[in-house]
């Protein structure tokens, strides 16, 4: 452990300890000699102004009146946190089709500077951190920035929207509630003033977005969650039912570790298969995920959803007949 990490560890030990910590314990925690412990304590107290009290016999701690407020100046990261930040920086720069890295360029520059300051001249093998976007969509960067600004500034937003399902182009004025990242894509949850209802908009279908001067109407978080987060996936609406899907023993090893919904219920069956129950509103997205597992998944209930799955499979099979 180098000195930088020792100082950080020493600070965290003293800040979280309710009672004085002996020098012997500090030696063990910091993996250093007794003399090094005293040097680090002196540096923490004299150079960084830490409120250290105590002595070598009783042990050391932070002053009870000041210790809770004291933090190390600047941003201190140990090697593990630094490595995690490096990986996150690569995710930021390589994901989202370039939109995230461009829109958040100032933050990325700060991260890169921090990495340089703590690398001590070492070149990090960033090529060993791979980010492979999956089915992300191209977005208008101007629209993305204005959507984010309207959400955070709590202002109304005007834009043109081209629905993917109907290809219809409409003009909307909305009160943005929150922006949601789901499956490598961004969605805007908003109150649509013309339709007088909550709606979700795929940001990649938004063009000519502009932030208005009018304040946004705030919708209660409980209402937002009930309407937009109550069912499976990104599609809005209160749940219409509970779907029961049974996965083969082979697929169970994957599905049991997957998060499908905040209110999902899952259990292993005696024969090794896995039963998953999820609330859903629209069947489309749920069935897409179920059919992804092919013969390893079976919709059991409700009957209407099972028939929809059967119909989709029959239509797909018809493409290969003859």
Number of E strands:
11
Main sheet summary: 5 strands, antiparallel
Strand order in the sheet with the most strands = 6-5-4-3-7
Molecular shape: extended
Tally of helical runs: 11
Q: Average pLDDT value?
A: 85
Order of secondary-structure elements = HHHEEHHHHEEEEEHEHEEHEH
What is the terminal-to-terminal distance?
69 Å
CATH architecture assignment of the largest domain: Roll
Kindly estimate the percentage of residues that lie in beta strands according to DSSP. 15-25%
Cα-atom radius of gyration: 27 Å
CATH class of the largest domain: Mainly Beta
Q: What ranges have pLDDT less than 50 throughout 5 or more consecutive residues?
A: none
Domain module count: 4
Secondary-structure class: alpha+beta
| Helix content bin | 25-40%
CATH T-level topology of the largest domain: SH3 type barrels
Provide structural commentary.
Strands 6-5-4-3-7 form a 5-stranded antiparallel sheet, sandwiched between helices. Strands 9-10-8-11 form a 4-stranded antiparallel sheet. The protein is built from 11 helices and 11 strands. Helix 1 crosses helix 3. The model has no long low-confidence stretch (mean pLDDT 85). 38% of the residues lie in helices and 24% in strands. The longest helix has 16 residues. The chain is extended, with a radius of gyration of 27 Å. It is of the alpha+beta class and 322 residues long. The chain has 4 domains: 60 residues, Winged helix-like DNA-binding domain superfamily/Winged helix DNA-binding domain (Arc Repressor Mutant, subunit A, Orthogonal Bundle); 50 residues, no CATH class; 79 residues, SH3 type barrels; 78 residues, Alpha-Beta Plaits (2-Layer Sandwich). Strand 1 and strand 2 form a beta hairpin. It starts with a helix and ends with a helix.
């Amino acid at each position: 452990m180098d000195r930088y990490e020792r100082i950080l560890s020493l600070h965290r030990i003293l800040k979280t300890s309710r009672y004085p910590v002996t020098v012997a314990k500090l030696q063990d925690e910091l993996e250093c000699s007794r003399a090094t412990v005293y040097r680090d304590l002196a540096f923490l107290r004299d150079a960084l102004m830490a409120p250290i009290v105590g002595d070598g016999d009783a042990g050391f701690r932070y002053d009870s009146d000041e210790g809770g407020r004291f933090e190390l100046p600047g941003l201190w990261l140990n090697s593990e946190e630094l490595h995690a930040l490096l990986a996150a920086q690569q995710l930021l720069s390589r994901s989202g089709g370039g939109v995230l890295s461009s829109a958040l360029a100032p933050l990325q520059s700060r991260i890169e500077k921090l990495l340089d300051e703590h690398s001590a001249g070492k070149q990090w093998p960033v090529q060993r951190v791979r980010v492979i976007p999956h089915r992300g969509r191209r977005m208008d960067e101007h629209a993305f920035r204005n959507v984010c600004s309207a959400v955070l500034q709590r202002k109304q937003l005007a834009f043109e929207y081209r629905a993917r399902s109907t290809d219809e182009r409409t003009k909307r004025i909305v009160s943005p509630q929150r922006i949601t990242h789901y499956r490598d894509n961004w969605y805007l949850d908003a109150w649509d003033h013309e339709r007088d209802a909550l709606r979700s908009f795929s940001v990649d279908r938004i063009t000519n977005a502009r932030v208005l001067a009018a304040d946004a109407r705030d919708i209660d978080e409980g209402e937002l969650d009930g309407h937009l987060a109550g069912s499976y996936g990104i599609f809005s609406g209160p749940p219409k039912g509970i779907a029961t899907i049974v996965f083969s023993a082979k697929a169970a090893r994957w599905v049991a570790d997957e998060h499908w919904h905040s209110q999902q219920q899952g259990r292993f069956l005696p024969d090794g298969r896995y039963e998953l129950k999820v609330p859903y509103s629209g069947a489309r997205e749920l069935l897409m995920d179920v059919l992804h597992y092919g013969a390893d998944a079976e919709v059991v209930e409700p009957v209407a959803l099972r028939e929809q799955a059967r119909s989709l499979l029959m239509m797909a099979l018809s493409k290969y007949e003859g």
